[in-house]
Amino acid sequence: MANERLVASQRERVSAHAERARAALLASAAGSSLDPISRRLRGARLPLPGSERWKYTPVNRVYERILTTLEAPAESAADDEAPPWVLSGAARARPADAQTLVRSAQQIDSQRHPIADAVAIAVSTSHGDKGSGCWTIEVDGDAQLVLDAATATTSWLQVVLAPGAHLTIDERQSPGALGVLRCELAAGARITHSRHASQDRFCWQLLDVELADDASYALHHLSFGSELRRQENHFRLLGHRSSVEIDGALLCGNNHRNDVQTIVEHKGRNSRSRQRYHGIAAGSGKVTVGGRIHIHTGAAGADAQLSNPNLALNEQTEINTKPELEIYEEDVSCSHGATIGKLDEDALFYMRSRGIPEAAAREALLLAFVREGISGPAAERGAAIASAELKQWLAST
Predict the structure, then answer these.
(1) What is the pLDDT of residues 246-270, one digit of tens each?
(2) Collapsed DSSP state (helix, strand, coil) of residue 268
(3) Measuring CA to CA, how many Å separate 297 from each of 217, 242, 243?
(4) Tens of pLDDT along 100-131?
(5) How far is CA 192 from CA 27, 67, 163, 244, 377, in A?
(6) Beta carbons within 10 angstroms of residue 96's beta carbon
(7) C-alpha–C-alpha distance, residues 30 and 27, integer Å
């Protein structure tokens, strides 16, 4: 009974935070061209503690950050200040107006990602009279995009690929404490995305992707826990033979959180998806992985797999994993699985019997587990970053 009262009290406090954030957002957008977003936000059910999609991550921290962003003075950067990324190759970037930001936000499923509408308003508000805060990148051929050490606390990036275009994204840090990266891939277009997310104090980010016929997206994800890290990914395989491949490693140390939620919707025929996340948590760290596969009616021949092995290094470590399948088509091939275990004691004993010190043996086994979860162009750099983090963990235990 006491626990129920505590939960109810917490929900009441966070609900007050949520409504205060909603009111501030609506006031910021009043009288602007963001009215379509305001209408959705006004009727949205904002997540509260205990809600299924935010069961293990404190959503009140997100509302606090939104309020902080709204209360901060608008950015006073010069009009010609360079954006917080580097773009090269057959691509061009331009600041987008508020109407473009609205159209981009309206393409996002606000029922599953209600924070996105709040971020759209916060992004626009934080830039004052310097524009909407949204950028559009158009890619016609081969191009490279580097997201590195962004200075903006909020960001919204819309990326559009022409038929047959190929974009390589090298994301070395999250592009903002509150950020949305939205990608539209035309027929035959490809994106190869390497993400190395650092230990920021706070980060909420949404990656929202639509793929047409024969388009493909490869996401190589390495992230470290922080006071709050929440990464939401939503892939819609609209075209026939479209595909997405996700491999990732999630590391989370003491008192940190690392939460990744991925939705893959199969709508086109013969579409293909692969999700593989390897999680490691130490101390009182908390790793949360949600993976959802949705096969729509008409997506005949869909082939989807999801795998999430995890290692818990301490008794107080918490790992939450929830793979889901929702299938409305008979002619499909789907599988999913998740495990939570400890370091292989037999392998550790074998290495020690060969003269390898225990700390070095543990590090080698953990790094091998991480390396199984990451690949792509920047895999070696990611492995070096992970190795340094693992050394710190082992030295402190």
Answers:
(1) 999 999 988 889 999 999 999 999 9
(2) coil
(3) 22, 16, 17
(4) 999 999 999 998 999 999 999 988 877 655 55
(5) 39, 34, 15, 10, 9
(6) 21
(7) 5
